[in-house]
Amino acid sequence: MATAATTPVRLLMHFFSFFLLFFVGSTSAINLILKNSCTYTIWPVLLSKPNSPQLPNPSTRFFLRPGEAKMVFVSPPEWSGFLWARSLCGTDPDGNFFCVTGDNRGKSTTLEPTLTATLVDFTITSVATDTQYEVTYFVSLMYGFNVPITVNPIGGIGSYCHAVGCTLDLNKGCPDELQVVYGDECVGCNYYSSYADYFDGLCPNARTSPYDDTGTFACVSADYYDITFCASNFPSSSPPPVRYETQNQESDKKNKPQKPMTLALKYMGGSILTVLLLVSFKCAVKFVRRRNNTMAEIQLAMSLNASN
Prior knowledge:
Elements: H1 2-23, E1 30-36, E2 42-48, E3 69-74, E4 80-91, E5 97-101, E6 119-127, E7 129-140, E8 149-154, E9 164-166, E10 179-182, E11 185-189, H2 196-202, E12 217-220, E13 224-229, H3 247-255, H4 260-307
Parallel strand pairs: 1-13
Antiparallel strand pairs: 1-3, 2-4, 4-5, 4-6, 6-7, 7-12, 8-9, 8-13, 10-11
Protein name: Thaumatin
Keywords: Disulfide bond, Membrane, Signal, Transmembrane, Transmembrane helix
Transmembrane segments: 264-285
């Protein structure tokens, strides 16, 4: 009985998740979807920079098994922070959490990895109005490399609104003196400025120098950012042409009378959605009740046969 009752609830939960994905972007500055395409578990870290609004612990402490994904909402305006993945994590004999790569000593206050990690840098700034935000982002190899990572903006605008990252496994060709070895396998590649050409040659879209800004990208009003660890292919990104409007153009757009059909769709959209939700819920309830009644009839028939 309990299993049958949970079926419509699960359907509604999936519907609301779908609804949030496409409509929450207007109220959140940046929405991240983290995907683990690696063959092993990773422990992502999302931390704020100094003097930036801090994120709650649920946004910074979690893990992703192979094939899993998680949506993270970063709503504070004027926020900046780092994202990276830790690998080969566990506890030592004293019960302290540690990771072979990307380790930050298990502390949410550590501002950067203390061990080798592929790093993503995010900065959010307001544009024009408080309802639009520009997100500047880049992938950095100046802390080394542990896992491939790509950042792909979905739905944003801007001439530099493109996918960025590195899909090659730099651990395979890492120079011996830079290798982070676990067992007999290279699981990380440390960075030194004298080897910048190695990193830059294999990942030209990533930043390999503090003076290099060629790998910096920016998007305005992206719906969300698709971040994939161990992506097999570099995502294609074809943003629309950048569109900047003057104050007069914005004022004319606001004062321009809308067509009757546009107004009808605008004000009826919420009502239609509400009706659809109610109808879906009622249908689900009827389905469960009909199924429960059928089960009761079957049980009654079985009991009568048994008595005969």
